[in-house]
Design goal:
Strand content: under 5%
Strand order of the largest sheet: 1-2-4-3
Number of strands: 4
Radius of gyration: 28 Å
Structural class: mainly alpha
Helix content: 55-70%
Shape: globular
Distance between the termini: 69 Å
Length: about 700
């Protein structure tokens, strides 16, 4: 063991154990009054834990800094592994599953939220399974085994975190989660609603996301748990499909191949990127290195669906395929295409892209009936100074969200650097060390498109309503991923196979390429059950109350709440329409029955119109409120305090308060608030009401 390795390991162990003690102290504090706010039992546990950490650090430090002691310990561990024979595989599988079970399915996953404690659990898991599955008799842990298992365990955490909201709980699990399920249902499941079949239902969501999220509604008798399972899978499978399409299977290097596929999921999930764009990228990956008769239709379809899904995505497939084609000629440093099967890659790129745009235009023309459709289609491509100014001023640009803020802790810029720096360092190292040979023109093919994607993503991320994560950096992240794919097929695949020969610092960077995307999922793993243990969990987690833990309420509370809402709806629908501004999934999955659908004024549409100050839209809304059109409105509990940028989504809150909450509470009054399920019932105020002072 080299001196540098010993120093790095000692520092890591010290920081991990010290941080774990701090995390354990946070758990113990607030449990009693024996010492400060620590109960006697938890005080003893805390003391035992810290003493154990100190002993572990002392013993391991003495072993690794003594060559003789280290050699003896390694020999004994290797001999013990040899005696286990095939039993080591069973033991490794048990160790692999244990952290997922402990953090995701037990009550202690809610208690042990500290990052250092969770990193400690992951570190122990990595040590044991890497030790158990290393085949060589002369080493304790093989680097290739360690790195592959690092990717595998990291992926298991991310998949588990993505599935944590799979439940049959009928009420919304987030601000817009329930209504988003309603969005998905309209394309293939609108027959679930009491609404005239010949009248359209407007959904404030692009066609691509509605198509992907709504596919499950083709299943007869779909339940809310099934749909949530499908939604969770759409945040997993498209990334896996992209990895499978980009990295072709190699039996000789199957572990490198599988690690690359899983890393695709880890890296791009940092967005997270909307599934339709990832699926468009899958088509691009399949088109690459394929015959023109196959690749051009794929580019056409990907461009078309990108165009009808989101305007900013329109040129992304063409740029990605161009990058892949051009970077795939690395063996010729002059930049000439030396692969006969790819001689016409420029034509495949541009022909496919323009054909896809043309196809989108035909659809628009048909929808708008001739000349109006042509004018609309052409105007969508005319970028005038007035259009640019309108796009930039339609919604406020909150530039401060590029830097650390309450809405997104690290800020978009630092968060993006955090997510991509390890990969960029590896790519830069490969170019400088000439392990990946690219010419000047190829470097520009990397830099220029990524710069364009970066600028678009940063601007969109600063628009009010955005900046809560990196999902608006989607084209940049996928573009950077495709650069890595091109490098993989031009020498890097073999380099990865032999990366154990590389300097220690590059190994550390490779580890960070896996660990950084996994920190979020590692922290997110937990259960939302155990509502009956609310008071005990409040003491251990130091939250204000049980509601802060977002635990699902008990079944009897849920049933009682549904009964109250059904009874109120049955009484109100005879007096007029009932508006489910929120919780529309209760209609989708028949939790609330026999009520005609009112498709207008979905809360997501309202907040979007509020942040754009759409006065025309709200005049109709206020008129409906003033006339008491709705006999009952189901919404989230409404609050009216305004907030600043020092609060999470402060500007969005203010828009909601000014345009929605205050007018609603002026024209309507609170009939009942169901706190446990986050539902409020509003009814029209009686008598004349003057709300002119509260309207924007």
């Amino acid at each position: 063991m080299k001196r540098t390795e010993r120093i790095l390991f000692s520092v890591y162990l010290l920081v991990l154990l010290a941080g774990s003690c701090v995390d354990f102290f946070d758990i113990a504090w607030g449990t009693g009054v024996w010492f400060g706010e620590i109960a006697l039992t938890w005080g003893i546990l805390f003391g035992v834990f810290c003493v154990s950490c100190l002993l572990v650090f002392t013993v391991i430090s003495r072993v690794i800094w003594s060559d003789a002691s280290l050699a003896r310990v390694l020999d004994r561990l290797i001999a013990s592994r040899r005696r286990l024979k095939w039993g080591r595989w069973l033991l490794a599988m048990a160790v692999f599953a244990l952290p997922i079970w402990f953090l995701q399915f037990t009550v202690y996953g809610i208690v042990f939220q500290g990052l250092y404690l969770r990193l400690g659990i992951w570190s122990l898991e990595m040590f044991f399974i890497s030790y158990l599955l290393t085949r060589e008799d002369h080493v304790l842990i093989d680097w290739k085994v360690f790195f592959f298992l690092l990717v595998l365990t990291a992926s298991s955490f991310s998949i588990s975190a993505s599935l944590k909201f799979v439940t049959d709980h009928p009420f919304s699990l987030g601000w817009s989660e329930g209504n988003r399920l309603w969005d998905y249902s309209i394309l293939y499941g609108r027959d679930r609603y009491d609404y005239p079949a010949d009248q359209p239902i407007y959904v404030y969501l692009d066609l691509g996301r509605r198509t992907v999220g709504g596919l499950a509604f083709l299943i007869p008798g779909l339940t809310i748990a099934m749909e949530r399972t499908w939604v969770a899978l759409t945040s997993i499978l498209p990334y896996i499909f992209l990895g499978l399409a980009a990295f072709r299977f190699s039996s000789r290097q199957k572990y490198v191949w599988l690690a690359a596929v899983l890393w695709t999921y880890l890296f791009l999930k940092q967005g997270p990127i909307h599934p339709p764009l990832v699926l468009f990228a899958v088509l691009v990956a399949l088109a690459w290195r394929s015959q023109l008769w196959f690749s051009i239709p794929l580019i056409i379809f990907s461009t078309y669906f990108a165009r009808v899904s989101r305007f900013t995505w329109i040129f992304a497939p063409a740029i990605w395929i161009y990058q892949l084609w051009y970077l795939d000629i690395s063996n010729n440093l002059r930049g000439n295409d030396v692969a006969p099967g790819r001689k016409y890659f420029k034509w495949s790129t541009f022909l496919g892209a323009f054909a896809g745009i043309f196809l989108a235009g035909i659809v628009v023309i048909v929808q708008f009936n001739g000349f109006d459709g042509i004018r609309y289609f052409l105007s969508s491509f005319w970028i005038s100074p007035e259009l640019i100014r309108e796009l930039l001023t339609q919604q406020p640009l909150l530039w401060y969200r590029l830097l650390p803020n309450e809405t997104y802790g690290s800020g978009i810029l630092i968060g993006l650097i955090y997510a991509t720096l390890p990969l960029m360092l590896v790519l830069l190292y490969l170019v400088i060390s000439k392990k990946w040979m690219i010419n000047v023109r190829q470097r520009w093919v990397i830099v220029l498109p990524l710069s364009a994607f970066l600028c678009v993503g940063l601007i969109v991320s600063t628009k009010i309503g955005g900046g809560g994560d990196l999902h608006n950096m989607d084209m940049f992240l996928i573009g950077l991923f495709f650069v890595a794919v091109a490098a993989f097929y031009n020498g890097v695949k073999d380099w990865l196979e032999n990366s154990w020969l590389e300097p220690m610092w590059i190994k550390v960077v490779l580890v960070f390429m896996v660990v950084i995307p996994s920190i979020g999922p590692l922290k997110e793993m937990r259960s939302y059950d155990f509502g009956s243990a609310g008071s005990w969990l409040v003491a251990l987690t130091d939250v204000a109350n049980a509601r802060s833990l977002d635990l699902y309420p008990a079944d009897e509370v849920v049933e009682e709440s549904l009964a109250v809402i059904q009874a109120e709806v049955d009484l109100a629908k005879a007096q007029g329409p009932v508006l489910f501004m929120d919780q529309r999934q209760l209609l989708t999955f028949n939790f609330i029955q026999n009520v005609p659908l009112v498709p207008e004024y979905d809360k997501k549409a309202l907040i979007e119109k509020a942040i754009t100050s759409d006065d025309v839209y709200f005049q109709e809304f206020y008129q409906d409120l003033e006339t008491g059109r709705f006999s009952l409105i189901i919404t989230q509990p409404l609050n009216t305090p305004r907030k600043g940028s020092e609060y999470e989504f402060g500007e969005e809150n203010n828009a909601w308060v000014d345009w929605v909450a205050k007018p609603l509470l002026c024209f309507y009054e609170i009939e009942r608030t169901l706190v446990d399920v986050n539902v409020q019932l509003l009814v029209p105020r009686t008598g004349a009401v003057d709300c002119s002072q509260v309207l924007p």
